[in-house]
Amino acid sequence: PQGPEEAKAFINAFLKHSMPKMKDEAIQDVLTRKAVVLERYSKKKAKQKRKKPKGFTAKQRRELRLFEIKPEQQRYTLFLPLHELWKQYIRDLCHGLKPDAQPYMVQGKLLKADLHGAIVTVTKSRCPSYVGITGIILQEFKHVFKIITKDDKLKVVPKLHNVFSLEIDGFISYIYGSKFQLRASERSAKKFKLKGTIDL
Questions:
Q1: What is the mean predicted confidence (pLDDT) over 26-30?
Q2: Which residues contact 38 (CB under 8 A, 6 or more apart)?
Q3: For the structural domain made of 74-189, what CATH number should be given?
Q4: How far apart are CA 99 and CA 29, in angstroms?
Q5: Contact 184, 167 (CB under 8 A)
Q6: How far apart are CA 78 and CA 42, in angstroms?
Q7: Which of 68, 121, 163, 181 could form a disulfide with 134 if both were Cys (CB 3.0 to 4.6 A apart)?
Q8: 12: closest CA among 43, 36, 46, 45?
Q9: How far apart are CA 44 and CA 48, in angstroms?
């Protein structure tokens, strides 16, 4: 058993070791209190910042031709299953496209829907050579649609000054490309005004 002096010496040595940054006078001051809080000094590890992987720039995507469809893949029949998937997606989105569905509701859903796989037709255009082009939308960009036609030709049709029609289950919707110049991802958040226009 230790006597009071040995115990006091042990406590002083222990506190000095446990709180190396405190002076002897400060330790004695701590001992006069009823409670002693031992501080722990640990070496702080430098936090390593995680670097987010950077994607390709637009220039790199063009150089790598990431969005180009190879000539051997430009076949209409190859994308018919995509069209069937798109029809099922629209039916689910519009709750079955029932005969009593409100046209403005369906129109509003179609304006925000993903159009990859939809069959569209150019019904009006300032450029007569675009009128009548019909096919499946393979890619949608901000300013153009890439459409594969039944004769396996890939057409790049600008949205500006063109009117497109798409039909599903007897419901025909018209899209004014001049008012539709958005990326597919941006379009879902945009509020469209459902009113007629004669502008091309």
A1: 69
A2: 15, 18, 19
A3: 2.30.30.210
A4: 87
A5: no
A6: 64
A7: 121
A8: 36
A9: 12
Reported confidence tier of residue 38, pLDDT bands at 50, 70, 90: low
DSSP-derived 3-state class of residue 158: strand
Residue 12 CA from chain centroid, whole number: 62
CA 100 to CA 98: how far, in whole Å?
Answer: 5
- Amino acid, single-letter form, for residue 124: K
The one-letter amino acid at 88:
Q
Q: Show the tokens assigned to 152.
A: 């396996």
CB of 81 closer than 8 Å to CB of 45: no
Q: How does pLDDT run across 8-17, given as a tens digit for each residue?
A: 778 777 777 7
CATH 2.30.30.210 domain locations along the chain: 74-189
- 124 vs 4 pLDDT, higher one: 124
* Residue scoring higher pLDDT (186 or 75): 75
Task: Considering only the C-alpha atoms of the chain, give the largest distance between any 2 of them, rounded to a whole number of Å.
Answer: 109
The answer to whether residue 60 scores a pLDDT higher than 70 is yes
Q: For residues 160 and 126, what is the distance between their CA atoms, to the nearest angstrom?
A: 9
Q: Is the Cβ–Cβ distance between 92 and 98 less than 8 Å?
A: no
